[in-house]
Amino acid sequence: MLKGFAKYIRPHRGLFFLDLFCALLVGVADEFMPMMVRQMINTYVPDQNWQMMVRICIALAAIYLVKLGLNLIINYWGHIFGIRLQADMRRDLFAHIETLPVSYFDTHKTGAIMSRITNDLQEISEMAHHGPENIFTSAVMLVLSAILLARINAELTIIVYCTLPLAVLFVMLIRGRQLHAFEMNRIKIGEINADVETSVAGIRVTKAYSGIDKELKKFNHANGEYQASASKAYKYLALFNSGMIFFTDLMYVVVIIVGGMFFFQGKINSGDFVAYLLYISMFLTPIKKLVDTFEQIVQGATGYKRFNELMHVPGEQDDDGASDAGCLAGDIAFNDVSFHYGEKGEDEDDEKEQVISHLDLHIKKGETVALVGPSGGGKSTICNLIPRFYEIDGGSITIDGRDIRTMTRESLRRNIGIVAQDVFLFNGTIAENIAYGTDHAGMNDVILAAKKAKIHDYIVSLPNGYETNVGERGLRLSGGQRQRISIARVFLKNPQILILDEATSALDNATEMQIQTSLDELSEGRTVLVVAHRLSTIRNANEIAVLTSQGIQERGTSQQLLEQKGIYWHLYQYQFAK
Known about the structure:
The protein is an alpha/beta fold. It has helices spanning 2-9, 13-30, 32-47, 50-99, 102-107, 110-152, 154-161, 164-201, 203-208, 212-264, 270-311, 379-385, 409-414, 430-434, 443-452, 456-461, 479-493, 509-523, 558-564, 567-576; strands spanning 332-339, 356-363, 368-372, 394-399, 402-403, 416-420, 497-501, 527-531, 543-548, 551-556. 64% of the residues lie in helices and 10% in strands.
């Protein structure tokens, strides 16, 4: 853990050591005052040496002015160090999240991931700044104070230090439980963030179905679990803080009782006794600082553990020997392919769990193949397997006779364009969304793609034209407009393989007919895989495959399947019967 954390400190070690050095000087400066007070009481006050007393006061004032400057450096540049470290960790975490397989996001909530990249890293940043600084300076002050205390009266110092093992034992007993409690607290915060993110994203559905009470009930349940978890975490924190304060108070009691006895016995004079009390205060200050810092350290350590867990989730890795796919022609073949959702290796022999079992399917270069059939047959799964969003359990998928596992994912996906039912637009301008994923696309290229998608005239009618912001997920645009922008995006990408996964199913009939015209133009000269429930959109497909949970049941052209009077015929009759 420390080795991994040190990797982020190393680039900013200049600020890190500056912070520690200034904190060290502040600690050393605090040690001067008891020494000077001791000298004044033992020497200058009895001798009535007013001149030396004034000099000592001036020296103390100068020391405190230097301390002021040092504290300014600590509080500003120390936080700058924490911010930079946090930014580096957030950069690496975000980059790693982008490499995670799609299957990871199927089983992990967006809000929980957001909690790790925001809340956890903020706690780590605070720990990185204050943790080492407070631990280092406290250790130095403890050692210096111990040395100075021993120089004043070694016997009293030994007696005082006998109380320390009790405090150490107390810390060891409570530390593990406290770390676990704060880790559970972080998990509950992530769950609340996930619930809020889902609720806000689905606010229209909530209002349309009068689901506010349901959402409040769900949120209050998660909030109650967080409250219980936080209560447990702070119970251990309260025990820790209260216990440590008790031990520090106990030291004061020991010093006053034993020191008083030594004073009456003549083993310590009044100046040394006062200095000893001041040094004990100095000695206890770093202990109190560590107590106050412990919560920060625990939360930061918990945050780093969660950060580390996510960073160690395996990302997508190209197979050994994988090479650039180049420009693919688009001849696609599924050869005895089996697949099930979940971690690879789980239930692979369980046929009931498999979405696709021993599938053989050939899509010739430049042809259009449509997949139809009831839901749950694996149509969208087949679409997701071609760009390797998921890993198959058995068999192989080849393009132009080459196993896609021998290609780098980036180069494979570069050859594939996808238009889905649920169009995702990023919060940005129309031009940025059309050009997304196409490097070095000029404005003229964007406009040409928009014209092909039959969306240009609408865009130029807007006050800001192509610089119009589409809003989060493109919600400022209609469904048809979002779909046309996604089609323009594929026109601009110009891939040889095109996947249309229910591309028009969410649109009304008039809009569907307009969009279908653009899709037909987009499909020309490409290998196209279409998933459709509306059979009117696939009548001209070169081949139609009827897919059920038992695999491909029928295949042929629309006319051939109608003549067979099988599943496709029944679907056709259902949709077009008058």
